[in-house]
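Thread: Newbie trying to understand structure tokens

Hi all, I'm a second-year student working on a class project, and my supervisor (Dr. K.) asked me to get a predicted structure for one chain before our next meeting. I've only ever worked with sequences, so writing a 3D structure as a token string is new to me. If someone could post the tokens and maybe explain what I'm looking at, I'd be very grateful. Here's the chain:
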Amino acid sequence: MQLFRHETRQSTEHTRKLYARYALAHTMVDFLAAVLFLVGSVLFFWNELETAAIWCFVVGSVFFCVKPTLKLAREIHMWRAGQTDALAEEEEGALI
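---
Reply by user tm_fold:
Sure, no problem. This is what the structure looks like when written as tokens:
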């Protein structure tokens, strides 16, 4: 089992569910980052809201940093799940 391979995502029911959960989290983070950048952009129209706009950009940037982190965490999580599944299959085979 290798990282960042489509076959890994579809190998078991468990990895399919993991992939779906991470995909949902990734989409939510992407959406929140986009909304914060949009709100921050609009807030820059008023000088008194400049600090709030800057904070929107900073938090939005953090969300953009979370995206690749989620992808890597997802792949490692699925890789470990595959390793566990293979170990369980080996143990089953040894018992038979």
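A couple of things are worth pointing out once you decode it. The chain has one domain: 10-88. The mean pLDDT is 84. Feel free to ask follow-ups in this thread.
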